[in-house]
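2024-03-11 09:14:02 DEBUG pipeline.ingest accepted 1 chain
2024-03-11 09:14:02 DEBUG pipeline.ingest length=191
2024-03-11 09:14:03 DEBUG pipeline.predict start
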Amino acid sequence: RRSTPVHLEWSIGMREETGEDAPRSVRLRLPDGRSLSVRGRIDRVDREPDGAFVIWDYKTGGPARYSLSDPVRQGRVMQPALYVEMASGALRAFYGDTAEATAFGFFFPGPRGHGQRMRWRRENLNQWSEVLKNLCDILASGAFIATDEDSSSGAPPDCKHCEHQAACGDLHETVAASSDKIGRASCRERV
């Protein structure tokens, strides 16, 4: 028995394009009680034979920047976790209180991805709320971090495909400043 696609290009909290879209954004609760309103467009939602839902996102590139063992990469890749949570909120509105997304996957159909798929179960994405809380704390402290990941040869890995590198100036100085800002935000949090 195979899964069945039930939503394609599913808009959540955005302008409705079909009667199947979810017009309301979804509120995500953070561990400290704050909440964020999220919205987005999900490429594909499949329903499994057991009734669970799986979220799929199509990527034109390859899988190199993603990790099965570290899905959120210290907040660098939040899409899997956020989409599972966002979709679960919208799915409950469509299918009832027990509906939830139990997994998220990337599908790489292009020449660099060779049709590869990566998939995480929801329980492997659980650190999302603490990571998102920390990112919100850093932003609330006034720090807007480009990257804290340095590279001795050329652009840091986070910046490799960025079209706006010129805005950061010297990337090694940007990394040092970002690391300092993260350190100061962490110190304020502990006080």
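2024-03-11 09:14:41 DEBUG pipeline.report The helical segments are 79-95, 128-140, 171-190.
2024-03-11 09:14:41 DEBUG pipeline.predict end
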